[in-house]
């Protein structure tokens, strides 16, 4: 599995890995205890996925994300919120992470009205929601580089989002040592 540049993304991958049951590719959502990751919650998004990229929706969006974006997209379709080809591609990547039980690392560029440019790292991982019986994706994001020119996301909105890097990685579990004995 890849190493992430930002501490929050690496911490989320480590926590997710520790919470999954031995031999499973996906962690159960109920095992990801918010008490164990309080510093990550403001930077977390939970996505509902359906059959197509157009069905990917923001189920829950952390307060750090809403502050950085300048609005709360909870309950809205991901592709529509992000807009254009990038929105469709982003939603398709989230859907692929859920369908293929794959990890996803992205770096995204956010260009603001003021001309400020931020780069954000994202770690997206599939989870199984046992109660609802559906796959979801949870992500944590953190700035790789923040442009200091903007200070207020509501008055300096993101005008354009663009991918800088995107890669999927295998979540194949390591064999359980006890099972091999």
From TrEMBL:
Query: Which superkingdom heads the taxonomic lineage of this protein's source?
Result: Bacteria
Which InterPro entries does this one have? DUF1457 (IPR009922)
Would you tell me the protein name for this molecule?
PAS domain-containing protein
């Amino acid at each position: 599995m890849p190493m992430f540049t930002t501490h929050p993304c690496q911490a989320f991958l480590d926590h997710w890995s520790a919470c999954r049951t031995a031999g499973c590719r996906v962690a159960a959502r109920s095992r990801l205890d918010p008490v164990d990751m309080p510093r990550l919650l403001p930077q977390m998004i939970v996505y509902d996925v359906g059959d197509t990229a157009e069905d990917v929706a923001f189920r829950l969006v952390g307060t750090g994300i809403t502050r950085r974006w300048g609005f709360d997209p909870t309950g809205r379709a991901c592709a529509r919120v992000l807009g254009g080809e990038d929105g469709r591609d982003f939603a398709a990547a989230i859907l692929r992470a859920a369908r293929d039980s794959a990890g996803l690392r992205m770096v995204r560029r956010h260009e603001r009205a003021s001309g400020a440019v931020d780069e954000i790292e994202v770690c997206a991982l599939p989870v199984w929601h046992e109660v609802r019986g559906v796959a979801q994706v949870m992500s944590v994001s953190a700035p790789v580089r923040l442009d200091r020119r903007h200070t207020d996301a509501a008055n300096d909105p993101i005008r354009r989002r663009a991918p800088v890097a995107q890669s999927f990685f295998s979540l194949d579990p390591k064999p359980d040592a006890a099972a091999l004995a």
